[in-house]
Design goal:
three-stranded antiparallel sheet; alpha+beta; Sufe protein. Chain: A
């Protein structure tokens, strides 16, 4: 059975936004799915509690790339607290849906953002300890 993807999924796969790395990232999160082999790395630039930039590198299928792209678009310019509330379901809805077998890709995007925010927090704690 062929999978059908929404126009938005196809667009974000063909023209992904925010691909790349941030050399001076304030938080970096990397997550993977052993079952499908997808790996997602998220880079965040955070200024005064606001995510000013987000980039990603994803090794995976079209749905993984599309969800990474959409997720970075959804958190840029947002406060950390708001980005933390981003659910995989919100990413799926923003993409006008995903085939059920590809929902795990959106979960990776949510987990990558949370991992990058956790990394940011642990770096902040280290700064406070060392000041």
């Amino acid at each position: 059975m062929a999978m059908t993807y929404s126009e938005k999924v196809r667009d974000h796969f063909a023209n992904p936004r925010n691909v790349g790395t941030l050399e001076d990232a304030d938080g970096v999160g990397e997550v993977g799915n052993a079952v499908c082999g997808d790996i997602m790395k998220m880079y965040l630039k955070i200024d005064d509690g606001i995510i000013t930039d987000a980039k990603f590198n994803t090794f995976g299928c079209g749905a993984a790339i599309a969800t990474s792209s959409m997720a970075t678009e959804m958190i840029k310019g947002k406060p950390i607290e708001e980005a933390e509330q981003l659910t995989n379901q919100a990413v799926v809805e923003a993409l006008d849906g995903l085939p059920p077998v590809k929902i795990h890709c959106s979960v990776l995007a949510e987990e990558a953002i949370k991992a990058a925010l956790d990394d940011y927090r642990s770096r902040k704690r280290d700064e406070i300890v060392h000041d």
